[in-house]
Design a protein that fits this description.
It holds the Pfam family DUF1493. This is DUF1493 family protein. The chain is an all-alpha fold and 88 residues long. It has a domain at 23-82. It contains two helices and no strands. It has helices at 23-36, 73-82. It starts with 22 loop residues before the first helix and ends in a 6-residue tail after the last helix. 10% of the residues are buried.
Amino acid sequence: MFSAKPVPLTPETDLDTDLSIDDLEAEELMEQYFSEFKVDKGNFNIKKYYPETPISWNIFKKTEPVLVPDFTIGMLIESAKAGRWLYD
């Protein structure tokens, strides 16, 4: 078997790209985060960070990559300090 190299957790660590957390895991994590740290979720929407990706059945047509904003540990830290989600 192979072992994955541990990712150091810093404020810059991205939940999606660095930790490979999928949308369902992230949604559950965020619900627990809002509850545990008593952070007002405001307009938080997981789809902002995990949007639907277009699928094409045409193998000759490339789909454009979907650009998504960063979703980092630092964002969670700063929002917890503020008591509300800061990144609507």
